What does this fold into?
Amino acid sequence: MSTETPAPTATRMKLEVRDLRKVFRWKSRGVDHEVEAINGLSVSARENEFLAVIGPSGCGKTTLLRILGSLEQADGGEVLIDGKQVEGPGQDRAIVFQHFGLFPWKTVIENVKFPLTVRKVPDSEATARAEHFLAMVGLSRVHDSHPHQLSGGMQQRVGLARALATDADVLLMDEPFGAIDAQTRELMQEQLLQLWTNQKKTVVFVTHDLDEAVLLADRVVVLSRGPGRVRDILDVDLPRPRWEYDVRAEDRFAHVRHQIWQMLRSDVEADAQSGV
Amino acid sequence: MPDTTADTTGLQRAPMWLLHLGFAVLVLGSWELYGRTGNDLILPPLSDVLAGVGRLISTGELQTALAGSLRLLFIGFGLALVTGFVFGVVAGRYRTADRTLRPFLDALYATPVIALVPLVLVWFGFGLSGRVTIVFLASFFPILINVYAGVRDAPQHLIDVARAFGVTGELGLLRRVIVPAAVPFIMAGVRLGIGRGVVGMAVAEVYLRLGGIGALIVEYGNVFRTDLLLAAILPLPLIGIGLTKLFAVIERHFQEWKTV
It folds into this structure.
């Protein structure tokens, strides 16, 4: 460890992304194509911070998350966790996937145990931990069901329990509630805030939903596209716990939401005109 | 949901086994009646055929023949299962292997095994290796092609999930995601493979070297004992039903998640 004492004013950075670059290359009909998905993207998250990432389609927000999770390799720049560069998937990060990513042939509890089984955690301990986190997301009674027997909201709670069971400090969430109906989504958002308050995780939450970003996050990172980079970062600055009042009725909520919308608007309009 | 089938009676609520039994009684009863009125050479009555089964059992012919046939079937099918699985996985996972082998596999898949009999005869002779080769060739391709399809179409997003949660290496991915995801395909291949294997078995025993059930069929056919000929054929569909049921049970065990 470093012998230097950290500057007392600086809050410790849990996650740092420096000057990230990602190029997708492919070949079609013998012609090489490439598209720059991300270029010069830098952002960081403090310990236990809830960071939302929002941007128009094609801004590379999912790519960013996949690079953070080491599912995709960057072509430039670096990702640091606790000051150390990440190399490959690690126990310090857990992903919650957009389409839940549950193994259909495994039961609910086997799905939650999966990361622990891979790490060769003894079965009794893995079961106990899986049960603990299933109870935490309110799913104790469906242990032995298979994912297809559950609603989308329940499936994503299994996904959440699985991520929490890994004990990772950093939760990477890729539009986790995008495939869930609107009413269930609101409940899930509230539940996520409660879990995050108790569990103290650093969260990177990718979404295309403005309300969701403002409702959940400490800061909202707005990306612009072509190629993806950080356009602005906004402090939400609404008091917590946010499930104890109607956040959406606050002036501050409307103000932040409006600011984000102003930034996204031109990109979205361009999409609408080009018929994307 | 409204029932759109033409059934209007209580028949549609009858249990499956009752329908099967009813149909069997109808067909076998007609057989018996027709057999009693007609020529024994063309179609002896069912009762004569069953008596023939009894005779073949009492002389021990049927048991010996069945044991020989099943041994052939299981060796050939077992080899086909192992090699079909390995080649299917490799072809499904490695693009180069896939692109190199595909046209050849498609060509062989479409070739009827019976057309290969003379070639197998020249290459492997009349012995067990020749007969096993026929059963193997019959079973191998359906298994290979299905394993290949299942492995090739293994959902990328689940592979990502496994990697994200610490699974490393090709073998780890195969064991934890790709093969389990391909189980429905693999089982379909196994079922097709066993059906084709039974055909291969009969072909090998009739055309390559007389032996097992095939020998009984040919021998009694040659002496115009149609009752005993049919008695020897009878075990074949029973083997088919038995093995299909067995694999259906295994299949249900593996893919509870697909059938519900």
About this structure: Chain A touches chain B at residues 66, 69-71, 88-89, 91, 94-95, 97, 99, 101, 103-105, 114-115, 118-119, 146-149, 162, 166 (CB under 8 Å).
